[in-house]
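>> Question from a student workshop board

For tomorrow's exercise we were told to take the sequence and the ligand below, predict the bound structure, and bring the output to class. My setup keeps failing. Could a helper post the expected result so I can at least see what it should look like? The ligand is copper (II) ion.
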Amino acid sequence: MIKYTLITLLCSISLLCSSATIDVRLVINSGSHSLTGGAFVAAKTYSVSNTFEDNSDIFIWNHDDIINLKVVNLDSEPHGLLIENHVNISSILSGDSVSQSFTLAEEGVFRYFDPLNSPFNEYLGLSGIVHVKSVLDTSSYFYWDIREIDSSWNELIILNTPPNLVDYDPDYFTINGVSSPDINMDVLARPTGIVGEEFKVILVNNGQSIHSMHFHGYHLTIATDSKRPSHVGRSKDTFPLYPREHLVLSCTPDKPGEYPVHDHNLVAVTGGQQYATGMFITMLIAE
Ligand SMILES: [Cu+2]
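>> Workshop helper replied:
Here is what the output should look like for this input. Compare the format with yours to find the bug.
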């Protein structure tokens, strides 16, 4: 079960936009991530619930909002929380919590993650997405938190045995913590729209592998490329995405239909060595 925190505040018709103050209780949980084919791996995630979720929550906030954040560590190990450009909590002991208030002073897409035991804690699932929007931005957005899992790594990391980086051989591939066909049920992930109306897709690679997402049916235009800013404005159908990189892609569909998107690295459309699952989603566009 995926749980999201979606907080969108629109200005009233008055010319004055005031910032909101939002209380967020973010919990670090450990548990079993259910994978395609009935498999499970040990994982750790951040969520607003005391119950383990398969993927860390995606936060959508408005520029200038004030966040009163309390991070609670329910895991047996110390963990931290870094939100790029906004927050740096270096360590929270097991059973402890840290509170911090901050203003969302910058618009954009930011990763949040555990800086401890890098890259293994963020690999286990302690990494997610924060999107800070202009209060005037009424665009339709979809979110893909892209990562892969080497189930043998999870077993070792949970036992505090660092795996060998050169042995990384992922066998599961997820978007927002789930694989095809279940990912098509995720309304925050699955692009839906209408011919002639722009939508945007935010892709964040929270894994350790390079992925390359191929869109059928349409060309999309790069609105943001965190790794290669000079590529902004390019229009094409396949987009490489490096670890810790994010992209914002814009699409204005020119025809109706259901069109697939998948990782062009075809091992990523498998799960537990079974084809076809993994990173495969469809866009559904109405007339
Ligand atoms: Cu393709």
